[in-house]
Each structure stands twice: as C-alpha cells, then as structure tokens.
Amino acid sequence: MQAATLDSRRMPTVPALARILPGGGLQSGSSYAVRNSCTLAMALLAGPSATGAWCCVIGVPDFSAEAAQGLGINLERLILIPDPGSQWLSVTAALVDVVSVVLVRAPDHLAPSEWARLKARLRQRGAALITLGAWKQSDSTLGVAESAWEGLGAGTGHLRTRRMKITATQPSGRLRHAYVGLDDLQGTTDSTGFGDHSASRSFDSVGPVAAAVAATDRSATSLFEPRLMKSS
Amino acid sequence: MPTVPATTVATRTMLFWCPDWPVTAALREHALPADTALVLVDRGEVFACSPAARQDGVRRGLRIREAQARSAGLVSLAYDSSLDERAFEPVIAAVETIMPGVQVIRPGLCAIRVKGPSRYYGSEEGAAGVVIDTLAAIGLTDVRIGIADGPFAAEQAARATDQLDDDDAPLVVIPSGGSPWFLSSYPLEVLDQPKLTVLLRRLGIRSLGDFAALRASDVRNRFGLEGAIAHRQASGLDHHDVVARTPPPHLDAVADFEPPLVRIDQLAFTMRAHAGAFIGALREAGLVCTAVHVALHTESGEVSERRWQHPRWFDADDVVDRVRWQLQGTNASDHGLTSGITRVHLVPDVVEDLADHADGLWGTGPDESIHHGLARVQGMLGHGAVLTAVIAGGRLLADRRVLIPWGDAPTGSDRVSRQTSVKERNQPWPGRLPGPAPATVFAERRAAAVVDSRGNPVDVDRRGLLSADPAFFSAASDDERRPVHSWAGPWPISERWWDPAGRVLHRFQLVDRSGSAWLLLLEDHAWWVEAGYD
C-alpha cells in the first residue's frame, strides 16, 4: 500500500483518533473500516465536518442524527441516503465525487475490479471512505476493544460517560491503541490538523488524554474490567 | 414647499368595485356556495363577512366567539391577503382583454381611464356594460361601476350604486363636470382623514360641499399639503391620475397531450421540450425560478398538485425530474392517479433575479458540485432517497430525528420553521433521555427479551413497579442471552395521555458484561430495542 507522503493529504481529525491513525490523521484517498462502533465512525466524520467539509452516510438507516450532532458533526452538511438498494456502488461512486468523507455500511461482496475502480476514484477526488463493519480491503481497521460505562448502577442513575480502548491497525499490520473518553471524540476543530509534523511522530505509548487514565493503572485491562458500580 | 399638481380637469375615470372581495375570493377558492355565512378571521377578530353573515348581525371587528354566537352555521376561515391578490389576477386579466390600462388600486377595486373605451364602445355606459358582461362570464356577478371625473369621485359613484333598484345595471355615471355637485352632499368621513375631519367639524364644516366652498389658497395656508389634497378631492379635482399597470410577463407553461400519456418515460421525454421552453422564457425575462408548482391533470379529471423547491434554481432537467417524481411518488397517496395525463401545468412559484444567482468567474465553489452530485443520485434513486436530518422535539429518539428530502425546506418556510424546530427541541419534554445520545437509533423496532434470574419475563405493573430485577436480556430475537451488568429504569413515558391513541411506555438502560449499552422500551408487556450505544 502506497503511503501518503504529503501532509496536505491529511484531513482535520479528532486529536484522540489522530494519534492512532496511520499517518497521524484521516488521509484523503484512504479507506477505513470501523468494526463495531457507530460512535467511532461518527467521531471520524466529526473532524472534517467541524471544518466545513460535506459528509455523506450511505446505507445506514439507523444512523442517529442527534448523536452525530452531539459529536460535532454539522447536520447542514450531512447527507443521508438510508437505502441505496441495488445501486450501492454507483451511488457511492457518485458521492465520492462530491463530498469529502463517505460513511457506508460494508457491502456483502464487492468484486476486486470494482473495488480498484472505487479506490482510484477515492484517490483522484481526495475523499475518504469509512465502512461500518469489518472489511479486509480497507487501509486501516478501527474498533472498540473495550468499553466501560459510568453512571449506571443496579436500577439507579443513567449513562453519563464512557471510556473506550480504541485499536487501529497500521498498514504494516501493527496494532495501536488509545484509551479515550466520550468527550475526547467530540469534533472540536484541531487547528493544527493540516501539516502538523509533530502529530506524525511515533506514538506507541499513551497520549496525554489517555495518560491520565493509564497513569493510575498501567495494566489497563483491570481498569476496564466491568464491575458493578455503587451509585455514587 | 411641495406643490399640488395644478391640473384643472381630473381624468375621466371608470372604477369597478367588487364588494367584499376577500369574502368573494375565499368563497371561490374553497368552492363554497354564495349564500354561505362566512367570516374571515384575522388575529381572532372578524376581518370580513359575507352578506349572509351580515344579515345575522355579524360585523367587522367582532371577536370570533361573538360572531359564532350570532350566526349558527357560521363558517370561519383565516384571512389570507395573498389569496385576495391571487384570486383577483384572473379578473384583471379578463378586463385587460377588452380594454387596456387597468390600474389596481387594491384587490377588488380597479380604475380605468375611460376615454378610449368610451369611444370604442360608443358610450361610457356601453363600455361599462361590456365590463359587467365580461366579469359575469367568469362568474363574478356582483360588480359595481362608477364613472366620474377622477378616481375619488368615481369610487363614491361606484359605492352609490347601493341606492339603485335591483333590476337596474349597477352603474352610476356622473356627467363630465358634475363631480363637485355629486360630491357636495357627502359627509367629510369619505375623505378618510380623521384628524382633518374632526377639525373641520369644529369649524362648522359638515359636508364636502362646504369644504370645497372654501378658497383653495386659504385651505392650503391653514391645513398644509394634506388639507390641500383633500380640498381638491372634495372639489372634484382629484390629483390622482390613472396609472395603468404593465401586465406581468406570462411565465406559466402548459403542455397538453392528445392522446393522453400513460407511461412516465413517455411523459418525461415529451416534457423535456416544454420544460426547456419554460426555463428559456424565464431566462429571457432575466429570472430564475427557485420553486415551481406542478399540476398534473388526468383524463378523468383528477389533479395532482405539488410545490417543488430547489436548493439553487431549476434548469430544464430538474423540472422534468420533478414531474417524474411527482408521478412516481413515494407512496400511492402522493398521486393516486388512475388515468392518462392530459395536461401538465408548470407555474413558477418563486422567481428571483438572474443577477442574484449568477455564477462567479471561477464558479461558485464546492456547494454547486455538491448539488449536481446529489441531483444525480436523486435521479437514480428518487427524490425521497437523499435526505438531510433536522433534530426536532420529542420523547422517543425516532421522533426527534426528522429527515427531509434534499432540496425541500423543513415543512414551511425555511427560517421560521428552523427557529420553531429549535424552540420545540428546547422545550422540557418530560421523559426525554438524559445523558449522551445513542449512536444507533433503530429505524424499525426490534423485538427484545428481558428476563430475571429465574428466567421469567420482566414486566412493569400499572403502578410502574418492576416485577423483578432484570438479569439477562437479548437485544434481538435471534441473539444470545446477555447477562445484565448494570441497569436503570423503568422511566415512564406518557405520550398524549389525553388522546385514546396515546401510549404509555417504560424505558430502560441496560449495560451488558461486554460494556455495550442498550436502550430498551417496554410497551404492553412487550420489549423493544429503541437504540444501541455502540
């Protein structure tokens, strides 16, 4: 896989995700698969959307506009196509032409030649494709490995915050992870998102966001072990 | 100091008046019989009433409750000033076909310079007769005509037709030069200048004749310009001239099909040329159309009408697409036409100046290409397949998500409804969900199951008490049982308790051992998954 060499190919990305994504952020012309979390996919859209990019969601009728707005996606620049039917490929290709980020439900089957054409179009137009669901052909796969909710007890309270361990595969096959809270995924505009060289430094340790979490307990798995919380 | 134009002879004017025009327009619009007791209501008060309502004692300015008390079978409609103008347009058009130079003073009242028509039709009475006949032909029977020197005197003459016998033509002609004499007996109130009227009364002047007898220069010195104009009106020397309107360009397009077309692709193909001509005519007038009204007439007399908006402006292909979508519809209730299309009527609903929409030298940026791309997808999938989302008010998450087809305004005019939607969203909505919004809101409800530690289904009784703590749940019918890690509920949602169709639901939040959270609903002892926090 040819890596992007120019920093200008990087799109504004939520800082918490920029750290673990290959190339230090969402790259135009690349494709990403999000395994099991719609929230994570929305967070990927939030960065470009907060800077005025148009986004499109194809084939996801369950997409929650309210959660999207909560994560900082501009609804006025968000297009929803809940049911592309049998024309998945032509609709996706048409939208790759005009919008910056396209979020799609991973297709059941896509012929390699069709994928190559779509990929070429992505490169040419400088758009990013995010698929919901595992998809081997994507450049990078993200997923929520662990998740813990706070605020809910045994019949008391309500969901308040969530902490997640997010993993991302690199093109080399190496896995990176970060511990983030729900607030870290909000699309506050990262002004240094374009051309930030320091962001592309090697980041295998935890970042400032996760440092606070991880510093208390380096063996993070025990921290994320779900346990019954007292209603405190 | 401004001067009053020193014309010594007022323009000979024919004025035709349709009494109670707002009522007539509303009766015609809603196809009500002419003897309906109808009132038009503006801000809770009667704005206009039909003769039948007036006979029952309804008057302008009454509160609507009072009017309903006086007249049993009263029909009340909201007053719509744009309807007055819209309904009057065919009347003006009909008169313009027989005599040019019509000035619309207000809907229901028109002035015409009578010199030309009287020569053409032989006499002033003859010209008036032609107007009456023409308007009767389009179904307007109650028309009054006054002919006098100047619009003011002519209006008083038209109103004086009340005193004629029923079998006479509703026409009063004041001979040339007779206006001062005709007006002299009128009270000062017809000048419609309350301050001046009160002052003149206190000076002992009670009629227009008394007022006109004063010297013009004295009136001017004492009452200024306003007084001088009123004095000229009272003297029958109206300074107003008849200013004919320029008929607006005809921008509608009508396409008739003989034999009727039964296939959409036939229609789309034939409409291409008509749509091109329609848009071409707009271009020539220097206009672009941002909303178009499409009416489809069928052989059996059905009409399918719809207003289509456009995010930018219509070109010919867009118009053809709208006609096609209107026929295809999203469901049968959209058109429900049963026979072939005989006529397509395109009316430009909102037109704007072309200069306001001109492309910049280097194009108008990315939004233009967005629009083209989305229009292409709409062409592939249909109008309702490309959506934008707006958050509205509501308790259930699915109610809060409102999807609007690309290019349509969010129900009603843009800015107003956007504000009301924000206002509605910020209402308290008891029972709405606290905390972060779930990322997946299921478009169609999915059945779920929740059981306690012994495997019995969990339920909520009528007092809102839980039968047992939930221990396991499955978020889909074919899903495995997940152990409940933490939970909260039941949170009652009582929707429209005053309505028999209202619902009572209980909402639960559940987190399973893997750390994913779910939002479940319990209604009528059945569990549903509302949303997932994935």
Q: Could you state the oligomeric state of the chains shown?
A: heterodimer
Strand order of the largest sheet of chain B: 15-16-17-18-19-20
CATH superfamily of the largest domain in chain B: Reverse transcriptase/Diguanylate cyclase domain
Q: Assign an overall shape of chain A.
A: globular
- Strand percent estimate of chain B: 25-35%
Q: Residue ranges of chain A: pLDDT <50 for 5 or more in a row?
A: 189-232
Shape of chain B: elongated
- At CATH level 2, the architecture of the largest domain in chain B is 2-Layer Sandwich
Note the gap between the termini of chain A: 50 Å
CATH topology of chain A: Rossmann fold
As a whole number of angstroms, the C-alpha radius of gyration of chain B is 33 Å
Region (Disordered) (chain B): 412-435
Protein name (chain B): DNA polymerase Y family protein
Domain UmuC (chain B): 31-157
Biased composition (Basic and acidic residues) (chain B): 415-426
Question: What distinguishing features does this structure have?
Answer:
heterodimer, A: 232 residues, alpha/beta, Rossmann fold, 8-stranded mixed sheet, 8 strands, globular, disordered C terminus, B: 534 residues, alpha+beta, Alpha-Beta Plaits, DNA polymerase, domain 1, Dna Ligase, domain 1, 6-stranded antiparallel β-barrel, 5-stranded mixed sheet, 20 strands, 33% helix, disordered N terminus
Question: How would you portray this structure in words?
Answer:
The complex is a heterodimer of chains A (232) and B (534). In chain A, 45% of the residues are buried. In chain A, β4 (101-105), α5 (112-125) and β5 form a beta-alpha-beta unit. Chain A has helices at residues 15-18, 38-50, 65-70, 88-98, 112-125, 208-216, 220-223, and strands spanning 31-34, 55-58, 78-81, 101-105, 128-132, 140-152, 157-169, 175-181. Chain A has 7 helices and 8 strands. Chain A is of the alpha/beta class. Chain A has a single domain (9-226), classed as P-loop containing nucleotide triphosphate hydrolases (Rossmann fold, 3-Layer(aba) Sandwich). Chain B has 534 residues and is an alpha+beta fold. Chain B contains 17 helices and 20 strands. In chain B, strands 15-16-17-18-19-20 form a 6-stranded antiparallel beta barrel. A 5-stranded mixed sheet of chain B has the order 5-6-1-7-8. The chains are: A alpha/beta (232), B alpha+beta (534). Chains A and B meet through α2, α3, β3, α4 and β6 of A and α15, β13, β15, β17 and β20 of B. Chain B: This is DNA polymerase Y family protein. Chain B: It comes from Arthrobacter echini.
